[in-house]
Design goal:
Elements lengths: L7 E5 L6 H11 L3 E3 L2 E3 L13 E3 L2 H9 L3 E7 L2 E6 H9 L3 E5 L2 H8 L6 E7 L3 H11 L4 H16 L6 E4 L3 H13 L2
Parallel strand pairs: 1-7, 1-8, 2-7, 3-4, 8-9
Antiparallel strand pairs: 3-6, 5-6
Amino acid sequence: MHIKGNFLIIISGPSGAGKSTLTARLLSKCKNLDFSISYTTRKKRTSELENGHYRFVSINEFEDLIEKNAFLEYEKVHGNYYGTPINPIEDSMKFNHSVLLDIDVKGAYNIINTNHFDCISFFIRPPSIDVLKERLIDRNDMSLEEVDRRIIEAKNEIMKSIHFDHLIVNEDFEECYKEVEKILASF
C-alpha cells in the first residue's frame, strides 16, 4: 500500500486495544510510512529493544528536551513522561513520507488540537471492557491491581473517542486492519 501525500497518522486507544499489532502491520505494508519513536522516562521492559518503540531517557534528560521545545507533545502517563519528538516527523515529511504514531489518548488529543500537521486519527477500541480486561490479563506483564487501574482509565479514554476521525472496533484483527487500510488508501 502507498499513502498519497504526507500525513501524521495517529493510532490511539486504551492499553490492550491492539494498537501495537496494528502499527506493526501498517509499517510492514506501507513503504512510505515512517514510525515516530517516542521518548519516555519509564523503565524498559525485558522484551523491549532500545530504539524500538521508545527512546528511554532519564527524567533530567526529558526535562532538558522539554526546555528545548523538542516535543510536538508530551504527557505524564502512568507516572512516567512520554513525548513525541518533532524533528524526526519534519524530516520524514521532507521526503514525502507519512509518519505513524502509536500514542496514548492524551497525547493524541494534544496533537489533533495543534493543527501543526495534517492528521488522520484512529481510535482503536476493544469490543467490550470484558474483552479488554481478558487481553490485559493474558499479557501477563502487570498486576491485577494495574489491570483494574487500566480498565478504569480505558473507560475514560473511550469517552474521548469522539475527538478522533475514525473509531475502529478491534474484535477481529484482520477486519480491523482491513478497515484502517481501506481508509488510508482513500487518501
